[in-house]
Structures are given as C-alpha cells and as structure tokens.
Amino acid sequence: MPNIVFIEPDGTRREIAAEVGESAMEAARRNAVDNILAECGGSCICATCHVYVAPESVQLLAAPEAIERDTLDFTAEDVRPESRLSCQIKLTPAHEGLVLRVAPTRRS
Ligand code: FES
Question: How many whole angstroms from 30 Cα to the centroid of ligand 1?
C-alpha cells in the first residue's frame, strides 16, 4: 500500500493510502482529490486527470508511453516536461512517497 501525496490546485496537501494495482487517478477519485475529473474513466483520451510530477518524485516513474504523450497534447493546461496523466500511473509499492501536483483547470 504506497502512501502518495496529491497537492491540489489551491495548495492543499492530501496524503493518501493508495492500493497496489490501482492508478493514481483511481486513488485520487476514491479520495475526492480536487480537480481530477477523469471524464474518460482512465481510457487515456480526455486528459482531465493531468498532474505534474514533483521534482523529488520524477525518479519513481518510468517515461510515459506514446499514447499518453499524444493525449497530453489535448489538455487545456500548460504541458510541462513533468506532465503526466494520472490514469496511466499504475501504483506499486515502489511508488511510496510519490508526490503529484494536480493541474489547475482553465475555465473560459
Ligand atoms: S482519465 Fe481520461 S485521460 Fe486520464
């Protein structure tokens, strides 16, 4: 059971006991983390589960697959080198201490 942290857009720090095998998006939704909308349910097509990996956590994650990078192109927020789709981060015990900043949503 990895303990992971989400930092919500307003700066609120949420520490969550995640389940091995679930995605970071699923852990966020199960714990009502703000602004993880996950409109496609984890199918990697909506980009509404966008997070920024904290610098201290970058080494905990493998590089994103091409489909994840392609979907990130459709997000409304700024895409940065540390951008990830939380639905594509499958959690293992090795993710203990993972810190993810939830991307803000731009509203027009
Ligand atoms: S939930 Fe839709 S891309 Fe992650």
Answer: 15
